[in-house]
Design goal:
The chain is mainly alpha-helical. It contains 2 helices and no strands. The longest helix has 21 residues.
Length: 73
């Protein structure tokens, strides 16, 4: 008999709610301040959704004239 595969979405949702409950409990007990809780949440959000890498610059258009910058003295 094999174990059924766990539903990943429900697992993630459970962990999210558990972590929020723990942070709320620690805040209410005075272990963490509101600013610390917000920092943890913001950091977790950034880790879950990292910013997209900048798009690489493509080749120059036809007719582009390249000019060397003169040394400023």
């Amino acid at each position: 008999m094999t174990k059924p595969e766990p539903d990943l979405r429900s697992e993630v949702e459970y962990l999210r709610k558990l972590n929020l409950a723990l942070l709320t409990l620690l805040e209410k007990k005075g272990v963490l301040s509101d600013a610390e809780v917000q920092t943890v949440l913001r950091t977790a959000h950034r880790a879950a959704y990292p910013p997209k890498a900048p798009q690489p610059v493509g080749p120059a258009l036809l007719g582009t004239r390249w000019v060397k910058a003169e040394d400023e003295k």
